[in-house]
Design a protein that fits this description.
This protein is of the alpha/beta class and 300 residues long. It has a domain of 183 residues: P-loop containing nucleotide triphosphate hydrolases (Rossmann fold, 3-Layer(aba) Sandwich), CATH 3.40.50. 30% of the residues lie in helices and 24% in strands. The protein contains 10 helices and 10 strands. It has a 6-stranded mixed beta sheet with strand order 6-7-8-3-9-10, sandwiched between helices. Helix 3 packs across helix 4 and helix 3 runs parallel beside helix 6. The longest helix is centred in the middle third of the chain and has 14 residues. It binds adenosine-5'-diphosphate and magnesium ion (MG). Adenosine-5'-diphosphate binds next to helix 1.
């Protein structure tokens, strides 16, 4: 059952049931001969005509796109075109920014995540986030992972032990840290810290993981480890990744959305979604000239 309302909410938010989705997965990335999906996997989330404002400033205008089940969806585009803004809107992270407001509709299994009575904390349990710069808590590796489950009321040590091991294994970090779980998370390397943050995100068993440029502070080896990990995670999770690295989007994602900023008559820049399609199509035969110009490096 997916219930996004808090237990105290009195409004009649629909309780929806997660049914097992049969999805046909396209193979991620261009390296895989770029097979297109025969049937598009079912969307877990849907954005319809989404605009995001900071005060009076409409940072992003009119974005519609699906986020498909157990697929990796990349968001690419030049700096300032609104990728992070849209990503944060997907789990109500913009709620934490004073003056930020979302218009249009963002649904999760058909349920509007901005509807009255929806609890943003519940939204973020289902839709987790990993940030650009790894941000472990100044706590032990163990306590970093156990933090979310404990908040959710899990107290038994044996149960937490299992969760911690599963999350660290799922984030391809267990073998490197299993003998030093009491060490501070801050003592790990940058790449390990980012995998710790991924482990922390998956410890509460979200369905969707949002990643905002998760590799931009990492060296190429740490980056390729995270990319490999993303492939594995896509077996169990739906991933949305913002990246300014087009090669990364081409390597790891099944679907790509290309954003750019357009200047309106009043001279104000608004982020716009130019094109959304299979990654293979975006990088080999995009429908829009602007996409082509961007991916071939003529613009951006
Ligand atoms: N907290 C904020 N307050 C006001 N404006 C913001 C805020 N965050 C982002 N913006 C503006 O929104 C636009 C999109 O920014 P952002 O989503 O960070 O772009 P990207 O991630 O594509 O680089 C930019 O014009 C940026 O200055
Ligand atoms: Mg950004």
């Amino acid at each position: 059952m997916t219930n996004l309302s808090s237990s105290s909410a009195t409004t009649d938010v629909k309780v929806i049931t997660m049914t097992d989705k049969t999805s046909v997965r396209p193979t991620a990335g261009l390296g895989s001969a770029g097979k297109s999906p025969a049937i598009a996997a079912e969307p877990v989330m849907d954005l319809t005509d989404v605009s995001v404002f900071y005060g009076d400033f409409e940072a992003v205008r009119g974005v519609s796109l699906p986020i498909r089940h157990n697929q990796i969806t990349a968001m690419i585009g030049p700096s300032g075109c609104g990728k992070s803004t849209v990503l944060r809107a997907l789990n109500r992270m913009n709620d934490l920014v004073a003056g930020a407001r979302v218009a249009g509709s963002i649904t999760y299994h058909g349920q509007d995540i901005y509807a009255p009575g929806v609890d943003p904390i519940q939204v973020r349990r289902h839709i987790g986030m990993v940030f650009q710069k790894a941000n472990p808590f100044p706590k032990s590796i163990y306590d970093n992972i156990a933090y979310g489950p404990r908040l959710n009321g899990i107290k038994r040590r044996a149960e937490l032990d299992v969760i911690v091991e599963e999350a660290l294994t799922g984030a391809a970090l267990w073998d490197e840290v299993k003998d030093k779980l009491k060490t501070s998370g801050l003592a790990l390397s940058g790449g390990q810290q980012q995998r710790l943050c991924i482990a922390r995100a998956i410890a509460v068993k979200p369905e969707v993981i949002l990643m905002d440029e998760p590799c931009s502070a990492l060296d190429p080896i740490a980056t390729s480890k995270i990319e490999e990990l993303m492939f594995q995670l896509a077996e169990d999770y739906t991933i949305v990744i913002v990246t300014h690295n087009m090669q990364q989007a081409a390597r790891v994602s099944h679907y790509t959305s290309f954003f750019t900023a357009e200047v309106d008559d009043a001279g104000v820049r608004h982020g716009r979604l130019v094109e959304f399609d299979d990654t293979q199509k975006i990088f080999t035969n995009p429908a829009e000239q602007r996409t082509e110009d961007y991916i071939t490096g003529r613009f951006g």
